[in-house]
Amino acid sequence: MVTFNLIYFIVFLIFLGCGPVLQYNICLKRDQGIGNQYTNVKNTSFNVYEEPQWCSGSLLFVYIIPSLLFFVSYLVTCVILRFGETEHLQTLLERVYLLASCSPWELVKQRRIWCTFLAWLLAGVACLACSLASMMLHIAAAKHIPYSFIIPRSKSSKVVLWTGALGLLWLQDFVVVMSVLLYCTQCHLLSRLLHITRTTIYQGDTPLILIKKQIEETSRFLRHLNQELGLSVGLFLCLLGFRLTTGAVSLFSFLKQYIHPENELVWLWPTQDSKLTFHLLALVFNLLPWLVLTALPLCTAARVTSNYRALNKAGSQLHGRPFGYQSTPQQDIDSFLLYVTSLHLHAKILWVPVRTYFLVSIFVLLLMAFIILSYLYF
After folding, report:
1. H or E, element range at 348
2. In whole angstroms, what is the distance from residue 28 CA to residue 89 CA?
3. Fewer beta carbons below 10 Å: N end or C end of the chain?
4. Any residues with CB less than 8 A from the CB of 99 and at least 6 apart, and which?
5. pLDDT band at 324 (very low <50, low <70, confident <90, very high)
6. d(CA 72, CA 133)
7. pTM for this entry
8. pLDDT tens, position by position, 199-223
């Protein structure tokens, strides 16, 4: 079994490595489409009809650096999942459902957990569909597809090269989606566990010493989330941020080319120019999945931090109005208040605490960037 897993990992890694190579072979830029500006190489030994051509743009910054960033993120994720503690997700899931089954007021909310998982799964499938559609539209919008080093000799060979490049690049997107959804799943389960713990405090039917043990258990899950998965998803977020930025700039640059002097957008219906329409749709579909995949882990991490802050407030409310704990000694209540108020636990991505006002600041910055880009390009 160990040998099979190793062979599977090596084969899968080879497939992922072939994606950027075939991508460069057909000069496909995820944010711009097929490179139409190229330089011919005076060598006709490969094919009678085709010549090898250099793709436009920087080889280092357009093809090599994004691919290296993806491979570093993928390898870090594999190391964490293979050599780290792999039972956290199963233990957390079992813990949440065990506590929910013991609490009658939480039984109804069990369906919400699965509904949330289903919504994330549908969002991941939609992201994969958009990324694949954007690459296919880039192919359809290309007037000519240059080839760098593998020159096809027939139409079927061209189709094989296109299909292989798109399929392997789509496989990379599948890895990114699964890594992001894994992080979001653990964040959601941890948030659910913190919510159940807070509800237990309000109900007043559980000894405070047991509640302390539950909170300490959540801190262990949070430590795994911050130190291991936070590093993995943080590296993928760097890649997503890079793709999101380049995709937005490319979309604005394209729209600037097709704006009338009277500031009226030229509607690119298929009856006018189908290739321009395909290119516009490809740029939009390329931008949407990176935007969704960037927002999901940030929002779920901020929710975990908010639940820890709500737990602090619950301890203060218990100290002010000890409903259900009238028979508990005041010393124990004071000790519990001191314990929960000393908790400074946050969900972290790349060792950076993620809070709600942090997301609000990012949203304001993105809004300002959108206004600035609109001013510069329009």
Report:
1. strand 348-349
2. 38
3. N
4. 106, 193, 196, 214
5. low
6. 26
7. 0.88
8. 888 877 778 888 888 888 888 889 9
